[in-house]
Each structure stands twice: as structure tokens, then as C-alpha cells.
Design goal:
alpha+beta, DNA Primase, Chain A, DNA primase DNAg catalytic core, N-terminal domain, Dna Topoisomerase Vi A Subunit, Chain: A, domain 2, 4 domains, five-stranded mixed beta sheet, four-stranded antiparallel beta sheet, 17 strands, transcription
């Protein structure tokens, strides 16, 4: 159905977003300002206690700083009421007292046909449920009872039985006056390809109704009772109602359970989902006869930021997990991930429940691996890396996988995680009692949290200052963001507030530069940015005091990044040298220490020239003579004087 121009604008004008949202949340009165339409509440889309969900009533826009849900009144109705776009528009129009425009005849006809098909599927479900209670369904009932599904559960789940006959359902529906073409369109029967009579799609099978998110039956899955049947499980064919690549079994109940705080689980089949749900894991879904598709992955992430893929602990389950990894890598984004829980000893979730109960399943889920670790396992398991060629082949394979990740910030984090695991693999004799600081590359003792004695205590503090200046400079002059985006994406800031601003800037890296400042405030809030810019070491930096000066900002960011790289290179050289003290011969130790000493000398030379006196020059920039002259000219132009004075 198409809407006339201006209809949605008028609808949004008449609709108060705070009133629409207010039916689902409790406003935080201490944080909200109703007079300005600035409202805050705990997010209705994920479980939390803090008021991170923001509604701007004047702009008609909401955003959650926790789960990043965002949109307008229409999208809010869609998500919370589980309806399609036009249904959400109709709900809001009715509340606003607006008359919906006349429907397009063709669209109305299509909608009416969908309604007919749904009614037909609902009728078929009732027929199958009755057949399960007959004498012909005795074997099916016995099988379900053996699997732990008693009569009450069978009725509640709408399970049924398709008789072992060719035309039972077809004749039943035709007897109610339903045209054969409609029965074919619903995927319940097929015309003969050999000139004979039409026949039922499902015969001698236990029937599982497949429902849309609103709970309406749109298709069926059937499990064969005959062990010699060529297809153990059979789904309805594709119809106007049913696209198996865009449907999840148990979608509606799982979404409701996930909204109440349960972890979203993705199992392999109907019985796994049912067993999990009956054991108390209500937020369980399954794809329908295929591997998880990109559309289904998007549906999962709309329900939960980090679903757990719960697969059978056999070779097929491992292969399925690896296929999900390949599918997910190109569509990953910040805050949206996957974890993998592989059942033990070749069991499926239903087996674990029957042998170890719900506690056994929970134990497996608690040990679920993040996707990066399963990716590492796939590339390294069963392989020996005892030569440079084999190590290089691993590096190449990992690089190719990381390249698939489009989000630059996420790509950088994946790269760092894999580097750390690679370090652990190739340095197989760690020093007892030591751990590795993945951000700095510093070798740390288990009894102390200080850096190596070879590194001065002020290095980390200086790095924090530099990180803050870099991020604040880009925030004040966002026109340079496209030039420094890759460097910003590779940076990981120690301070949580600075890291929050950095991540937001990376997310905005491909936005028009004239929109970045406004979007940045929408994402992180004005208070966060104000806190960063008001910090003394940031506030007195020329590139922050003179926002919008591209050349000054560009030079400051470049210089600070170079100094960070030098200092962190030093830290890694020292870490390697310390490990080599345990692992290498004297000549190698001497070489390592020599490398560390040279890097240290470079860093100290930079530090002597940069006394961190933020009142002098462009943040104490360490630049060559030509760059210093150019910077002097810039600072004179804006009234700051010479860089070294």
C-alpha cells in the first residue's frame, strides 16, 4: 500500500513520541525534562536498570546509548508491538485521529489473499492436531511421549499428525469449500505432474506448526514416522507466506522471553527448540532446514545483541558453526556479536537436557566461546606451525578473514585479539606467573601491576594524555576525520570516556563531515563531550582551543599518533626482550636488549623535545624543521606565537 505525499509527516507531527514510548517505560524524573521534551528511561529493548534510553520529543527521535536502538514513533511501534510498517502506521493514525488513505485495489487484493492463506494454514493445524488424537496417531503420540512431551505440551505447542494417506487433508479442506488452487498456494497439497490426482504434501509425519512473529501459522515442518523415508524432516514449500530463509522457528515466544532477560539461543531443529523451551530456556529459535542465513542473522540481532549458537557437539555441528562464522564476518558491527556453545560428546541440546537436566545445558552455555576464538580454532586446530612458511600461511589466512569485517573499529579489535593468540601460540613457553597486557604489550608479573622496570612509570599516563588530545582534536575539527579514520580505528584508548568518544567517531567515519558534530552529540550525549573537552590537558591544547582549523588539527593528530607508536613500539620490544631472557641464547638476548635500547633512546629524545607543556606550541609537537616552520606560521596566524616559546 502506498501512502500519499505528506501523510507520514502529518502523522509524525500529530504524534507525541514521549506519549507513545511512555506506555512501555517508566520515565526517570530526575534526569528527564518534560518541558523541553527531553525524556530518559531504562531501555524497553534490553534489560537494564540505568536510564540510557533517550527520547527527544521535539525531534520525534529516540536512541538507546546501551543497545543503540534508534528510530521514530513508527519504528518504536513496529519493534514493541511486533507489527509490520503499515500496521504500525494504522495504529498511530487511529490514535492521532487520522483517516487512513484508500487502499490500492491490487495491494488490498494481495493482503486479502494472504489473510486467506493464513486462515487456511490455521485450519490445517487444527486438522493435524485432531488427527494426533486418533487411533492413527498413536505411534506419533508414543514417540512424542518418549521424547518427554506429554499431552499437555503437545496441545500447547499445537503439534499434530498427518495421516499415512495421499489425500486426507486435501479432501477435508475441499469438503469445506476451499478451492484447490488456494490449497496449493498455501503449500498444503500439490497437483500431480503425471496427470493424476493432486495429493497432500505431508503424509505419515508428526507436524510442527511454523508461526510468524505474531503467532499466526504460515507453514509446517513434518518429521517422518517411517525410518526409511528419504527425508527425515520436511518443510512446507516456499509460498507467499513462507520464506524459510527469512523465518525462525519459535520467533515470537523467543523474542518475548529475550525481552524479559533470557539469553537468545539458536539450535538446529524443532525438537531442540522445544526441549530447550520446556526446560526453561524460552528464548530459543532454529533456522528451518538450512544453515543460518544473512536475513536470519539480522533477525537474531534485532532480538539480542549477542545470541548463542547452540550446536550439536559432532563434526556436523562444528562445520555448521564455521559456516555461521563465514556468514557473520562481513555483517558484524560494533555491539553485535555471536557466541558458540558446542554440546559435549556428540550430543544435541535435547540429549543434554535428558541426561544432565537444565543445569547441564546452562553449564555449556556459560562456557560459550566468542566468535573470534572459534575462528582461531578453525585456522589452527590440528595444524603444526614449525616453519616460517606455515606461520606465514596462518598469518595470510587470518588477514583474509579480518578483511571481511567492514566496521573499521571492530576489524582493529579482531586483529588485536588474533595477534595476542598468535603470540601465545608461537611463544609456547610463557614465563611462570606472568600475564600479557594486550593493549601495551607489557609483560606483567602476577604479584604486581607495575610495568617493567625498563619502562618509566609515567609512560602510560602520557599515552592517556595523547589519546585524549587526538580524540578531542578530531571531535573539534571533524572535517579531518576521513583522513585519520583508519588510524583512529586502530587506536584503543585506556580511558573509558575517551574510548567512548573514539568509537562514536569511528562509527561516523563515513557520514558527511558537516553532520558529524550533531550526530556525535546524539550518540554520546553533550555531557560526555563536554567532560572530555573540559579536561585541563585537553582544554589548553591549541587544536582544541581553535576548533575547525584543519591544518593545525591535522598536524597535531599526526604528531601525537607518531609519538604513541614510538612509545608502544618500545613497550613491545621490552616485553619481547624480557621473554627472551627466559627463552633465548645470550646473543639473542643482547640483540633484543639492543633493539629495546635504541627504541628507548628514540622515545626519550621525543620526550625531551616534548615536555608536555600544553601552553607551548601545538601540544609540544615533535616535528622536523620544515614542519616546525609551517606550524609557526599557522600559530602566528591565529595569535599563538612560536612553537618553542
Amino acid at each position: 500500500m502506498s501512502l500519499p505525499p505528506g501523510f507520514l509527516d502529518e502523522l509524525r507531527t500529530r504524534t507525541s513520541l514521549s506519549q507513545v514510548v511512555g506506555r512501555k517505560v517508566m520515565w526517570d524524573n530526575r534526569k528527564s525534562n518534560q518541558a523541553k521534551g527531553d525524556m530518559w528511561a531504562p531501555c524497553p529493548f534490553h534489560q537494564e536498570k540505568s536510564a540510557s534510553f533517550h527520547v527527544d520529543d521535539r525531534k520525534g527521535y529516540y536512541y538507546c546509548f546501551g543497545c543503540h536502538a534508534k528510530g521514530d514513533a513508527i519504528s518504536f511501534i513496529k519493534e514493541t508491538e511486533n507489527v509490520e510498517f503499515m500496521e504500525a502506521v494504522e495504529i498511530l493514525a487511529q490514535e492521532a485521529g487520522m483517516q487512513m488513505p484508500a487502499r490500492d485495489p491490487k495491494a488490498a487484493q494481495k493482503a486479502d489473499r494472504r489473510t486467506q492463506l493464513i486462515d487456511l494454514c490455521e485450519a490445517a493445524q487444527k486438522f493435524f492436531a485432531l488427527q494426533l488424537q486418533t487411533a492413527g496417531g498413536a505411534a506419533a503420540r508414543a514417540y512424542l511421549d518418549k521424547r518427554g512431551l506429554k499431552a499437555e505440551a503437545q496441545q500447547r505447542l499445537g503439534l499434530g499428525f498427518a495421516p499415512d494417506a495421499w489425500r486426507t487433508l486435501l479432501e477435508h479442506l475441499q469438503g469445506k469449500g476451499v478451492a484447490p488452487d488456494l490449497i496449493f498456494a498455501a503449500g498444503l497439497a500439490k497437483p500431480s505432474q503425471k496427470g493424476g490426482q493432486a495429493y497432500d504434501v505431508f503424509r505419515n509425519r508428526i507436524m510442527f506448526p511454523i508461526r510468524d512473529p505474531r503467532g499466526r501459522v504460515i507453514a509446517f515442518g513434518g518429521r517422518a514416522m517411517d525410518p526409511n523415508d528419504s527425508a527425515k524432516y520436511l518443510n512446507s514449500p516456499e509460498t507467499d507466506l513462507f520464506d524459510k530463509s527469512r523465518t525462525l522457528y519459535n520467533h515470537g515466544p523467543a523474542r518475548e522471553a529475550a525481552g524479559k532477560g533470557q539469553q537468545l539461543l539458536v539450535a538446529e531443529g524443532y525438537m531442540d527448540v522445544i526441549a530447550l523451551s520446556e526446560a526453561g530456556f524460552g528464548a530459543a529459535v532454529a533456522p528451518l532446514g538450512t544453515a543460518v542465513t544473512e536475513h536470519q542473522l539480522a533477525m537474531l540481532w534485532r532480538i539480542s545483541d549477542e545470541p548463542i549458537i547452540a550446536l550439536d557437539g559432532d563434526t556436523a555441528g562444528i562445520r555448521a558453526a564455521y559456516r555461521v562464522i563465514d556468514l557473520a564476518l562481513p555483517v558484524l558491527e560494533s555491539g553485535k556479536g555471536l557466541r558458540f556453545a558446542l554440546m559435549p560428546d556428540g550430543k544435541d541440546p535435547d540429549d543434554v537436557i535428558r541426561s544432565d537436566g537444565a543445569g547441564g545445558v546452562q553449564k555449556v552455555l556459560d562456557g560459550a566461546l566468542p566468535m573470534v576464538k572459534l575462528l582461531w580454532q578453525r585456522e589452527t586446530e590440528g595444524k603444526v606451525f614449525d616453519s616460517p612458511e606455515r606461520k606465514a600461511a596462518l598469518d595470510k589466512a587470518l588477514r583474509e578473514k579480518i578483511k571481511l569485517i567492514r566496521d573499521p573499529s571492530l576489524r582493529a579489535h579482531y586483529g588485536q585479539e588474533l595477534k595476542d593468540m598468535r603470540w601465545g601460540l608461537f611463544r609456547q613457553r610463557p614465563i611462570a606467573g606472568r600475564r600479557f597486557d594486550t593493549r601495551k604489550g607489557l609483560s606483567m608479573s602476577g604479584s604486581a601491576t607495575k610495568a617493567s622496570l625498563l619502562v618509566s612509570a609515567g609512560d602510560e599516563a602520557q599515552d592517556r594524555l595523547r589519546e585524549a588530545v587526538i580524540v578531542a582534536t578530531v571531535a573539534c575539527t571533524p572535517s579531518i576525520l576521513p583522513e585519520v579514520l583508519e588510524d583512529l580505528a586502530d587506536l584503543t584508548c585506556a580511558d573509558d570516556l575517551v574510548e567512548q568518544v573514539r568509537e562514536a567517531l569511528v562509527r561516523l567515519g563515513h557520514c558527511p563531515t558537516d553532520q558529524i558534530s550533531q550526530r556525535l552529540e546524539e550518540i554520546i550525549g553533550p555531557q560526555t563531550l563536554e567532560t572530555l573537552l573540559s579536561a585541563r590537558h585537553v582544554a589548553i591544547t591549541p587544536s582544541v582551543r581553535t576548533p575547525g582549523h584543519d591544518d593545525l588539527a591535522r598536524m597535531t593528530v599526526r604528531d601525537e599518533l607518531a609519538k604513541l607508536a614510538a612509545q608502544r613500539g618500545l613497550a613491545r620490544e621490552i616485553a619481547e626482550a624480557e621473554l627472551d631472557l627466559e627463552d633465548l641464547a645470550d646473543e639473542a638476548v643482547t640483540f633484543r636488549l639492543g633493539e629495546a635500547a635504541q627504541t628507548r633512546a628514540m622515545a626519550e629524545r621525543s620526550a625531551r623535545e616534548d615536555k608536555r607543556d600544553y601552553d607551548r606550541g601545538p601540544n609540544g609537537a615533535h616535528i622536523d624543521k620544515d614542519e616546525r616552520n609551517a606550524l609557526d606560521a599557522l600559530l602566528n596566524q591565529i595569535g599563538y606565537g612560536k612553537t618553542g616559546k
